[in-house]
User: Fold this.
Amino acid sequence: MKTEILPDERALRLGRRERALAQMEAFDLDVLVLGRQANVRYISGAPQLWVAGTRPFGPICTVVRSTGEIHLNSTWDEGIPADIPHDHLYGLAWNPMTLVDVLKGIEGAAMARRVGTDALTPSFAKLLPMAFPNAELVDGELAMRAARRIKTPDEVTALRGALRVAEESLATAVAELRVGVTEQELTGLMLEAQAAGGVSTPATQDGAWVTSREHPWRAVRSGRRIEQGDLVAFSAGVLADGYVGEVGRTWPVDVDASALFDRWNALWDKLAAACRPGQPASDLLAAYEAAGEPLPPMPVAHGLGLGFDPPVVTPKLQATAEAEILEPGMVLSVTGYVWQEGVGAVFGREAVLVTPDGPEVLTSSPSPAAVGATNG
Amino acid sequence: MTAALTAVSSAADIPDLPDRARMYRESGARLRAAMADNGVDALVLLGNGNVVYATGASWPLLDAGLSHVERPIAVVLADDEHPHLFMPFREGAASASEIPSDHLHSALFLEFDEGVDHFARALSELIRPGATVAVDELTGAMRRAANRLFPGGAPVDAAPIVGAAKLVKTPDQIACIRKACRITEKAVVDVQKALAPGVRQIDLSAQFVRRAFELGATANMLEAIWQVMPTSKAEGTWTTHGDLALPLLTTERELAAGDVLWTDVSITYTGFCSDFGRTWLVGETPSARQQDQFRQWRHILDAVLKVTKAGATSGDLARAAIAANGGQKPWLPHFYLGHGIGTNAAEMPMIGTDLGEEFDDNFVFPAGMVLVLEPVVWEDGTGGYRSEEIVVITKDGYVPLTDYPYAPYED
Assistant:
């Protein structure tokens, strides 16, 4: 039972930092100034309050390559690893000039030649040169993305933990699926389990919905009660120990939709086969074509880690996906989606670890795969 | 100055539920007025809270680590009453929108060079050459393609423009905030009933999020806070300023009789946030000293509310609070006496921060602004007292939005 907020384990922390410092060298960055929650966690190993949605760029965490020193925006030391000493912590501030003054005082700031930031606002584009007077400001997100792309073994362990909470929350909601329950009630049950699964929190908040029998993907969300014949989709996304675990399933309510589930299974076989090292990520798009299924409107896959990691596989980024070669240590969240007019959709999402020997599916939530399986 | 199209002067002016079509029209008009005031022809918005404001779209917000990749993008033009919205598809998300279909576009992926290429082509068809463009965030890929995205020169910061529009809330926006507060308060009633020795902090979070979604919340905005306060500042967590730490994260810690909890939760309803904070006591009734803490907090709040009205400044409220607290600031050094609220849980103005007294004295409250007041009082040995009260600023005073008792403290 976790009753204390602790920093990430030493091996996890240092393994990530080593990867990040290597990429700073590869991208010739003297300093990284990070504002994105996932990047900050990756470098610092310090848990932060979970807040939904994007946030404007601000200098939350600064890494100097030559010294490896980390300066972190935290008013307290709870959960801060000992390798970030008190004099490297600076409190919450509302005046950007307060933050610029902190950055000015960091050893190595004055002489830095190339400073990477993971995003930027027009205002900080003007202010940061005051702290880094000799530096060119460049994109630092590419370096972080390259570091985060491949998971260390400790990261895979952390991801398994997040997936376990996600799968348990999905099972909790599926267990209550019956005629008369509402989408909101099922969603509430799932989110409740996600918050009670440890020091974990809902990360995607999609919940449960009745798939449409009239439209390939448009959800109605009318608040109506589940009826006999519905295909009900469940999408669980959980943040635990900083890592995002996602799993999706669809369950039929007192109806035989086995033909559609068979189509999903046939699609999934092709999607899983695409998750092999050396293959381009675009094979996941090709898998839909090979299965004779239209591509769904959501990305077919994205990396899992501290939030989204590369690649993001969508026809909108076809050339990017073709150039993205899968490597061992990547973890993908892969979505299979099939629809039949008059029946509904089968949505399923699995987490897949790319290993030297091929795909290892990390999720194991039961599916109504057996012919005729129904719920209700 | 951006004028309110309609103003709230009493609770009767706030509709029970928002008229979403009217809210969309009035938000758009406020935004375009702020653009005109700042000489900006086009806004490119990436921030979730800004896109919600500009387009009326609302969705269950994603984790911070996910949200920058799969995010809606808005382009607002000064001479077009409708914004353009590039909306990613989330499975299961309903897609109600006031935006005409020729202004609705499929998702953009601005983290990637290929995605930015698509965007550069789209922007070149929307924004005339030589236009003044404002943007709230630049991704790395956008920075690499800046010359193609913004051929007229470096964009200005959109944050102050959107901030000016957001400052005064329309009656429908206030209805959204009030509805978000009602959902929150109703969910919290059950959580407070469950409060007992042996209950874990995460159990409170779990119960809250379930009830909030059952009651119609669009999104949970914040990992719920149920912070157990230390017996003294000296025994509390180390901080950069030596004062109290807040907010500390929720764990599986079991609550014990006598624990004093400072609570803080927030959800959205159609894109607008609630903010809830109360001090609770586990399994006991407040001691005389603890009751005095509450009375002191109440005294400070009353003193602040006495000067709260349109035309007052942040500085006026800060001075009233300090005077009522015997010359000491009744808020934590890293926070504020109060803050605005809207599509973000904390918006301008922030009162009493490192932005400085001059900033506070120059920040004049307009009618229709919504403010969260959260004074803090502390005496070692009591667990202190902190609660949050949301008010709408009116010409003559304020309209309270928060409606939740102070139990177990006696009002």
User: Anything to note?
Assistant: Residues 182 and 396 of chain B are 25 Å apart (CA to CA).
